[in-house]
Structure formats: C-alpha cells, structure tokens
C-alpha cells in the first residue's frame, strides 16, 4: 500500500490542477460530514481500510482545519466497538455529527443493522452510546444508512436517511430518541440515490445527495418546508466516469461556501480498480441569487484557496498537513497522535506559513527514533531554499519522544513549508509528534541586504541593521543553525575610515569576513546603497557598545545569537581614523586581537585632522594582544605612522603587511579585494587558533611574503 500510495501520490501531485486534492492522504477516507464550530471545521469521515477489497470500514475519523488546506488528523473518534449491541466487525458507514447544547451527537449507520447514536462532551470525543440499541432499525439492509441531521430555527431536529428509499423522522430535543415514526417520502427528488445532506440557508431547505448510481454525482433539491415536497434543482457536481460513488457534505465557512465529496484520486485508479479505497475531496461552492447552486467542475479541476495563513509560532501537531507524501499516522489515547512511516525522500507540506516580520530563528521538533535521520526544511517547493536542517538522533525507542532543534536562516513572509525527510533507505526514520518555530521579536531586524551573494566563504553572510543596536551594522552567516556548542562565531568589531558613521566604504570587505564564519559589528549606520555617508562622525565609544551588545546577545535566550558567539575571541579593527579609534580602545581586556588598517598613531600629532582622536605613542604600551598592521605601501598616507607604531611594539606579537595600493586599500573591490586575504587569515589564526592560517604569518618564508605584491615585517613574538 505504502509504495503504491507514494508513487501515485507523486503522479497526482505532478498532474493535478488542484495539487492538494484529495485533502487527506495518510488514510483512505469517505463520506465527508463537515461541521463548523467557532473558527474550526470539524470534518468527520468514514475510513476505508488500506487493504479493502470492498467496503471494509471499522471506525470514524476526525480532521480539523481553520484554513481549508492544512488539515489536522485526530484519528478515529468512534468505532464499531462503541456499539455493544453490534457483534459484527464491519459496516461503519456514513455518519454525521452535530452539536446541541454543548453535547456532540454522532449518528452512525452500521450497514445492515440500523442507525446508532453516540454522544460526547467534546467534538474530539470520546463518544459513548447513550441508548444501548439502534436509534432506527427497520430491518432494511440498504435503506437504514446515511443519516443526516439538522436542527431548524424553531429547535426541531430532523433526520433524513436511506438508499434508495428516502426516510425522515423528527428527533426529540434530547437528540437520542425519535419524536415521530420513520416517514417514507414517496415523492423522492429526481436522481436521488443515497447520502442525503440536509440543511437550511437563507430560509430555504436543501437536500443534497449522491445521485443515481453509478457513477454517482452530487445532486440537490430545494424546498420551502423541512419535510418537503422536494424539487430537484440540478447537480452540485455532475456524475463523471472518474467516480463510482460520491457523498455530499456542504458548509458555509468564513464567508465562503464549500462542498465536500469523495473520489478515487489518491490512487489514481479507474473506477473498476478502486476496491472501495476512497478519498475525501473539497471544492468551492457558489450560490446564485435565487439560492440555486452552480454546478462545480470535478475536484481536480477546481482549487480551494487557503483562507488566511498558517501560524508557525504555535505548537503545531506534526499530523497537520496540506500533503503528507507517503506518511501514516498513529493514535495513542484520546488526543495523542503522531506521524509515522517516514521514509527517506518523503515529505510533509504545510501551506501558506506566515513567518511575518518576526524572523524565525529556531525550529524545535519532538521526535522519537531508533535509527535517526534528518529533516531538511525547505520553503516554496520540495527542492526550494533550505532554511534549516534538524538532525534527529536515536532516542532509544520509536515512542520515546525528545526535542530536537535547528537554527533557521533568514525567513520572513508567507511560504509553503516542506519538511523533507532524509536517512537510511527502507526504514521508518522517526516518528514526529509536534513542532514549532520561535522568532526574534517583531522589528528585531529593521533593514537587511545580501551582499555579493553572501560572500565567498563557507557561510553565506547577510548585512543587517538591528533595532536595539543603534548606529551599527552587523554582518553574520545567514544560517545560524550551524553555530552553537563547539562551533561558535568569533567577533570582529570594526570602525570606519574618516571616522564615518557608516561602513558604506567597507561593507564588501566586512561581508566577506563574515562569510568565513564571523560576526562583524561595524560602527555606523546601515549602508542602503554605495553613496557616501555625510552625517556626524562616529566615536570610539561605538566599538565598546558593539562589544557590550554582542556579549549581552550571546547570553540572551531570546536572541538569535544566544549560545553562538565566542565572546572570548574578539578582534577590534578599523581603517584610517577607525584604526585610531581601535587603538584608543586597545586596553579593553575583552579584546583578544587587533587589526589596524591604513592607520597608525601620528608621529606628529599637530597635523591631525579636526575631530580625529589623537592619543600619543604611549598608547601602544596599553596593547595587550597580538596586532597586525595592514597598510597600502609607501604611497599610503598612513604608512609612516603605521610602520612607526609597528617598530615600537616589542611586548606583544606584531606584524606589518604592505600591499602597494595606497591609503584607500582594496575594501571596495569585489569581496574586499586582496586585503581580505591577510585579514581573514589573521582572524582565523588569532580568533579560531587555525595553525593553517598561522602559516600566512609564521616562519621565515611566511605565506603572505610569498603572495604577489605583499611585503611583510614582523617582530620576534610572531614566531614564538
Ligand atoms: O461509505 C459507505 C457507503 O458508501 C455510504 O454509507 C454511502 O453513502 C456510500 O458512500
């Protein structure tokens, strides 16, 4: 069954105009009986067993939805076992459920044995038999099936039923006893076969039904009275050779009208091959001004649009889906269901998921597994962008559920969500109970740009403005899920040339560094474009604010950076005037490395520019970390100052690298140009302890000295 379903589900998916039809895929279902209560549709259905070769029906199932495309499976809510007076094993035929005074009544035909009634305090059950005998039993093998119950405005409840005869009885207010005898309607509406669906709308009574077999369509009749006479008005859905049987359920919901019926489309078999393994489908329904109903095309030729969107920030039962490719569900207890039979390559789709502007950043799922596997979370298609991957470890048993988490790459707005399952072949990889996304607060990210396709490093980076960090720009890997535990993000704190209060000249360089697995916090406003920023100059204090902020974020459970930042490895850096700001801050004990670019303390402070910070050379004594000077060669206006600094520094490892491009460096070249090479290597060595990166600076013929264009000098401490 499973393999067949999987293959044929794919076929349906590929060819159907209405790709989410039939609406239930994890089981064979028939005889839809929808009921609207509050903002939810309760869809009760009958259940064809997977191995049915004819009618093989033991229980009644419930599905709910609030948007008409994502349906939550509640499993069987009643079964033949609930009728103690019935000793047979088969015959759980077309039921209907309605609510009266807070109690839920389920009218259940047991084929060949009459119609029973069950009652529950909740639409989810448990349903119990309050009378211990059939409510109706005329000893008619076919005629006592398919009850439909409606409570009129005056409180009188009616039950219609029958195939091919049509009966009606009045119910008492208790809903579990008859007020009248069963009355046979001799004036049966044209084309009536079975499956009546009785309701009232705008003062007119409707009796929809499965029309004369076979194939059955969905016909309907109207009347001005609850007891008729009924006049055939046409088809809600005409009979087609795609369908042998059909069975209507009709509702108004959230301002629209819908019809439900049944088909054989999941298996995509001909009506000769179907063996009563049926599927419930839905379609939009339109009334004319006079109350008549427009004939709907066949299920697959119409589309049910999603009402609203789906909220991923709630606890979502895993058995909620618009499409469950090759999956099954298992029920334990009254309300405990999980998804199972999850194989490599299968997927679960939830449609129209609204991430809003909250920026989802974490995904949590409850899973149980003996073999483990992973769930790739894609958006918009099965092979669409991956926003996260959850590794599911073995939990020891297929019913021992544990929580697994993944960080989520930048995602906002509305997307279809595909959970694609990967792992060992031909095994149930895991069982899934529930999932949720957590988001950073609305407005956390106020602006963002993907720069140069995220950079050339191992991690695609993004440039963001973050609401609670005024006058700063932050660069970091888009998918933070890869970080945490031993893989933490070291920090680069940056200040700009000319002490400009925006990294508009350096953002390519900074983005490139972030793509190598760093969080870069730049002084200054988010560069929306490449235009120079002409506002007030920045201050050295902004670098201190950067350090304070990232340390706080790494400890804040609500931050996307929680537990992901290596706050023991922070490099402070800046270009030109920003280099001077960095030197002003060099004594801060939280700093573990310095990178001074196209800068150095002035040998002659009298020629400094206005507002430029100008500490004396004594400041160099406060440096307590390794330091690199990256300069633009002799034509760099900062060359003499920078090299003078370098020659004075004997107490910590110091390295000077010159590349002959002048003061402007290569920051604005693609990916930050040649300056990115020693910058990334310096950070990899100093902040990540990479011995490979250290070779760029250590030894007689260090890597940078052999790189075209570079000249290097270093003090003894570099090679120690
Ligand atoms: O599902 C069993 C029977 O098939 C129903 O009671 C009829 O309406 C037909 O759909």
In words, what does this structure look like?
The structure is a single chain. The protein is mainly β and 720 residues long. It folds into three domains: 28-301, Glycosyl hydrolase domain, family 43 (Tachylectin-2, Chain A), CATH 2.115.10.20; 316-439, Galactose-binding domain-like (Jelly Rolls, Sandwich); 445-719, Alpha/Beta hydrolase fold, catalytic domain (Rossmann fold, 3-Layer(aba) Sandwich), CATH 3.40.50.1820. It is 11% helix and 35% strand. The protein has eight helices and 40 strands. The strands form nine sheets. Strands 31-32-33-35-34-36-37-38-39-40 form a ten-stranded mixed beta sheet, sandwiched between helices. A five-stranded antiparallel beta sheet has the order 1-2-3-4-20, with no helix packed on it. It has a five-stranded antiparallel beta sheet with strand order 21-24-29-26-27, with no helix packed on it. It is elongated and about 110 Å long. Residues 1-16 have low confidence and may be disordered.
